[in-house]
Amino acid sequence: MKYLLEHTRIQFLELYRLPAFFLPLVALPALFYLMAGSHSSLSPAHSLFNYLAFAILGTVMFQFGVGIAGNRNDPWNVYLLTLSASPRLRIAAQLLSALLFSLVFALPLLIIGGINGALLSASPSALGLGTLALLSGGIVHGSLGLALGYWLPVKGAVPLTNLIYFPLSFVGGLFGPVQLGALQFLHSFSPTGAWTDLIASALRSQFNFVATLTLGIYFVLCATAAIIGYRRVEQTEYH
User: Fold this and answer.
1) Is residue 106 within 8 Å of residue 56, measured between CB atoms?
2) Could you give the angle at which helices 44-60 and 191-203 cross, rounded to 10 degrees?
3) What value, to the nearest 5°, has the Cα angle with vertex 176 and ends 98 and 184?
4) pLDDT value of residue 122
5) pTM of the entire structure?
6) pLDDT in tens, 177-221
7) Long-range contacts of 30-38 (CB under 8 A, 24+ apart)
């Protein structure tokens, strides 16, 4: 536990001291929510939770997808691979630091949601179920970010992550309802679409089997890709 907390602390401080990482992710979700989310046709609580999902998605995509890919050839990272800490400890520390950043980035949205009444538009039990759905989707997308981090090329990590991040946010309906016509299935079977569908059902105190199954399949695929990618990096960079 001591090593896990120390790894988490180091990773949090390392990213906290990078304004290029911290400032956009703390400001963009709140800004987009003020401009569009608070006027959405969705229920106030559903719209707020979608933007909380957008904040979490940005955290895991850039902390993992860009951060890990960019640090793969870093001498400090190569040194860390020589330490006795297990891969699971390092990945657990990355997930914990992502959770801490997600809480920080969600705080402005929660303050705005408290002021405009969105948090009062659903019952406490519905908010609890919505939070559970939010965190469940965050774990799935965290595994997606890890997989990207261990497989994206170092120099192309930023543009490729942006090419995935914003289309996924739009198709998944994180900014509001989407009408894709004949391509509407892209929403239902995208990870972000399943995430928003699960949140919507949870806020109505209902269980969404299709969304849960879709997220479960994405989690298995992405976690497997992340583990294989981690071992590939460990062997090519250290041995």
Assistant:
1) yes
2) 140
3) 100
4) 86
5) 0.86
6) 888 787 888 888 899 999 999 999 999 999 999 999 999 999 999
7) 30/108, 30/109, 30/112, 32/175, 33/109, 33/112, 34/112, 36/175, 36/176, 37/175, 37/176, 38/112, 38/116, 38/118
